[in-house]
Amino acid sequence: MSKPSDKNSSIRLKRDHPNNSFDESNSSTKSSTSSIKKLKHQHNNTTTISMDKETHNRYSNGSSSFISSNSTKKLIIKNLKTSSLVLPSDYFDKIWPLLKQALEAILNGTISPTNEEQLYRHIDHLCTTSTNDTNTSQPNLLYDNLRKVLDEHVQTFLPTLLNEINDSNDYLRILNSIWNDHIIRSSLIRQLFIVLDRTYVLHAAVPSIWELNQDLFRRYIMQNSIISNRCINGILKLIEQERRGETIDRNLIKNLIRMLIDLH
């Protein structure tokens, strides 16, 4: 009889504790989960410490291990090197005849016998290099001689414009033609002597080459009372003719009025 009792007691124990095996497995699972969490926590702490050390090293030293790959490249602009070439003191005297010949070719509408590249090079040497003679400024000499040639050329317009012309329209056409030609020649001269404009003229108290040509035309042509009166009276006459219904050359009036505005 004792054996059945033991059997019953064992059955009763199983009934009273049906989850014993589950609890054991659950406790083991919890234990493993806790271990994983501890490992993660230790790993995070280690990573944080290493990152803090790296950040500290980067900012305390003012640099980092990545600065070589991510560093910003600096663009350094240096001043132009001055030419070491020293020209002889008589360089201008030798070169100016060539430049004057080219200048007169432009003013007269002919072709210069000297290559433009050589002319540019000579002008550049005169404007950017020094000479043995410290008492003379070659850019200053170049500008003064250029002004003399332009001055003489503008005065050649006077005989034509002071000539008696009965038809006012013809006179205005002649004046407009001379002005347009003067503008074209002035532009070509400025291109040839562009280095002089960008070096000497830029720092000296003198007008630019373009302004110089404008000033000379204003002084000798439009400030001449005979020429200016003929010009203004001719324009007024054309306006009066248009009011009467006559056909006039509007482009001629437009060009001359623009000339007066530019030279004002």
Write the layout of secondary structure elements.
Blueprint: H1 2-16, H2 20-60, H3 67-70, E1 86-87, H4 91-108, H5 116-128, E2 130-131, H6 138-155, H7 158-162, H8 168-192, H9 194-198, H10 200-203, H11 209-222, H12 225-243, H13 250-262
Task: Walk me through this protein's architecture.
- By secondary structure, the protein is mostly helical.
- The chain has a domain at 90-262: Cullin Repeats (5 helical Cullin repeat like, Up-down Bundle), CATH 1.20.1310.
- 73% of the residues lie in helices and 2% in strands.
- The protein contains 13 helices and two strands, in the order αααβααβαααααααα.
- The chain has helices at residues 2-16, 20-60, 67-70, 91-108, 116-128, 138-155, 158-162, 168-192, 194-198, 200-203, 209-222, 225-243, 250-262, and strands at residues 86-87, 130-131.
- The protein has a two-stranded parallel ribbon.
- Helix 6 (138-155) runs parallel beside helix 11 (209-222) and helix 8 crosses helix 12 (225-243).
- It is elongated.
- The protein starts with a helix and ends with a helix.
- Residues 1-5, 7-30 and 47-68 have low confidence and may be disordered.
